[in-house]
Amino acid sequence: MSNNSRRKFIKQLSSTAAILGAGPLAAALGKEPVQLLQPQTQISANDKIRLACVGMGIMGFGDVETALKVPGVEFVAAADLYTGHLQKVKEVYGANVFTTRDYRELLDRKDIDAIIIATPDHWHDTISIQAMDKGKAVYCEKPMVQQVSEGHEVIAAQKRNKSVFQVGSQRVSSIAMMEARKRYLAGDIGVLNLVDARYDRHDALGAWQYSIPLDASPQTVDFDTFLKDTAKVPFDPTRFFRWRNYQAYGTGMPGDLFVHLISGLHFITGSMGPSRIYSSGNLVQWKDGRDVPDVIMAIFDYPETKDHPAFQATLRVNFADGSGGGEYTRFIGTEGVIEMGWNDFRVKKHKLPTAPGYGGWDTWNTFPKAQQEAYVKQYDAKYPPDTRKGDTSESKFAAPANYDDRFDHFVNFFEGMRSGKTIVEDATFGLRAAGPALLTNESYFKKQVINWNPETMQIV
């Protein structure tokens, strides 16, 4: 980043609080003050948006519930391959909601404006492209695609249709993420050199051991359609309801969780992505028939660009974390660190003093007395007292306790439809986040370094 750009952002810091509603108010969290960030979302509900969802599993129901909190949105139709999910739709949202096993019936309806895609990963590209070709706005859950080549096809579909398309990694719409980006660009941590991120869990549901309904059968589940173009196998409710455990239908831990970490990393730094990816992992605890690891680590090399210096990123997910799990992303620079939570973060500054110091664990202690005295005399002459103090401070920022970044993400999506507001996490952003995650899997299974062109989004 140029010096002019950095100075510009430093000047903008004074207006950041007004933009985000983060005035001088501070709330005590424990014993330390936290600056509260208040959303000032502007919503125009003049045009009613009729919404449908394909895939009424955990994310489908969660997305619909959140989307309906935005004024002017009506849920009119749902598609799912399990009849029990469709029954649940009517129990929750009423008998008037149209339900079907065939998602194409939703795309053919002229009265549906937007489609949420919350299916298993291997269906994302097909439904996204068909929906955009039918004139629908699309909110597609992360990862945007299962294969890199599919991502380019989704990008092409968005461009040719001029569609409103947003990937559902909601943190890029978080007020905490926006404020953290301001702090990073203002140079609060000096020169970035390392991003350290983890997303660990230690429970069965967190390891995708989802409950399977007792009525699961070939009569209640359209298993053949679920398989799509993957290998034909006999009906297996475990594959259907715990699809994330299989390479054929999901994208493993990188596709599910790395994408959140990468999306936030790219949003804060403005990066297009890494140029080298290497990963390693293991299947430690969850040996339940899955063919993906439950522990994985990756190292990403990010090249220097006009927007950021060269830096490394280390990402980790551990589903066998006996410490109890937890997640963070740490942006480490030469003068401090930004430590991200989910909708909160802290900035710790630790700028070194100009004077190097002496004594302590130092060769000065090995000098003869005369040399020690001479050294101190020249040191005092060279380094006045004000050069011996560094900058050590800490600031905390947090969204309100009831804040929902997914709500703001849907607001941005619907405002893109209503007013043409720019979608940050469009198809191109989506592939630049999904690509490194997908290649983490490729590196793991091939046991080799993968080279990636972040600008063209192609394997080198």
Automatic annotation (TrEMBL):
The residues the entry assigns to the signal sequence are 1-27
Does the UniProt entry include the keyword Lyase?
Answer: no
Q: Which GO terms describe its molecular function?
A: nucleotide binding
Ranges for domain Gfo/Idh/MocA-like oxidoreductase N-terminal = 49-168
UniProt keyword Electron transport present? no
Kindly give the Pfam families that the UniProt entry links to this protein.
GFO_IDH_MocA
Q: Which UniProt keywords apply?
A: Signal
Q: What is this protein called?
A: Gfo/Idh/MocA family oxidoreductase
- Protein species of origin: Chitinophaga agrisoli
